[in-house]
Amino acid sequence: MDIKTAEFTLSAPRVSMCPNDTKPEYAFIGRSNVGKSSLINMLSRNKKLAKTSSTPGKTLLINHFLINREWYLVDLPGYGYAKRSKTEVAKLDQMIRGYILEREQLVNVFVLVDIRLEPQKIDLEFINWLGLSSIPFAIIFTKADKLSEGKVKASVDAYVRKMLETWEEMPPYFVTSSEKARGRDEVLDYIDQINKS
Ligand code: GTP
Ligand code: MG
User: Fold this and answer.
1) Which residue's CA is the closest to the ligand 1 atom numbered 32?
2) In this structure, which ligand is nearest to the CA of 52?
3) What does this protein do (predicted)?
4) What would the pLDDT profile of 48-97 be if each residue is shown by its tens digit?
5) Ligand 1 site, residue 175, Cβ cutoff 6 A
6) ipTM over 0.90 threshold
7) Cβ(35) to ligand 1 under 6 A?
8) Ligand nearest 111 Cα, by number?
9) What residue's CA is closest to ligand 1, atom 12?
C-alpha cells in the first residue's frame, strides 16, 4: 500500500470534538519527544504534515490526518513530560485516555518507545492499561538510526524479554527511523492488512 494523499482534518481538545466520520483510525502514543509526529510525517512522506519539535510537549491536541481519503492517522499528545503542572498532566491524560476508550473508529494504537532506552515504567504501565482495556496495539521502536545494528537488536531483545515477564506473547512490533524511513513499508502493510480484514 502506498499513501497517495494525506490531509490534515482537524485538531480536537476532546474525543467529542473529533471528526464526524466513521473511517478507521490508527493512533500514535508514547512519551513526549519519542517521535510520534515525525513518524506520521515519515509514513505520509510529508515533513510538514504534523508539527514536530526538539522540545518535548509540542503536540497538545488530538490531530486527525486523512490518508487516501479512506482512513486516519491520529497524532496524540505525549505523556511523561516532567515539566508539566499536575493540572496539565491530568488534562492531557484525560484527553488521551478518553479518546482511546471512547473512539469507536479506533482500530489500532501504536505505542512508540525510544529504542535507545531500557524499558521504561511509564510505557510498560501504559501498555498494561491498553491490555486491560482490550485495546489492540502494536509497539514501534523509534530513532533506530541513533544506534548501531547490534545495539538495535540487543535493545529489541531486552524489550521482548521484559514484555514476556507479564504478557503471554509479544505484540506485533516494528523497528523504525523517521530520519531514514526505516520500517515504513512494514507499518503501512500492517495497517493495510487491518483495513482489509
Ligand atoms: P510531542 O508532540 O512533544 O509529544 O513529541 P513527538 O513524540 O511528536 O516527537 P517529535 O516527532 O516532535 O520528535 C521529537 C524530536 O525527535 C525531534 O527533534 C525529531 O527530529 C526527533 N526525531 C523523531 N524521530 C526521529 C528519528 O527517527 N531519528 C532521529 N534521529 N530523530 C528523530
Ligand atoms: Mg508530537
Assistant:
1) 143
2) 1
3) Necessary for normal cell division and for the maintenance of normal septation.
4) 999 999 998 888 999 999 999 999 999 999 998 878 888 988 999 999 99
5) no
6) yes
7) yes
8) 1
9) 52
Q: Which amino acid is at 163?
A: M
Q: Is the CB of 41 under 6 A from ligand 1?
A: no
Q: Which three cell numbers stand for residue 91?
A: 488534562
Query: For residue 16, what are the contacts with CB-CB under 8 A and spacing of at least 6?
Result: none
Q: Fill in the amino acid letter for 35.
A: G
Nearest residue (by CA) to ligand 1, atom 21, is 35
Q: Which domains are delineated in the chain?
A: 6-196 (3.40.50.300)
In this prediction the pTM is: 0.97
d(CA 73, CA 187): 12
How does pLDDT run across 4-58, given as a tens digit for each residue? 999 999 999 999 999 999 999 999 999 999 999 999 999 999 999 999 999 988 8
Half-sphere exposure of 138 (CA within 13 A, CB side): 18
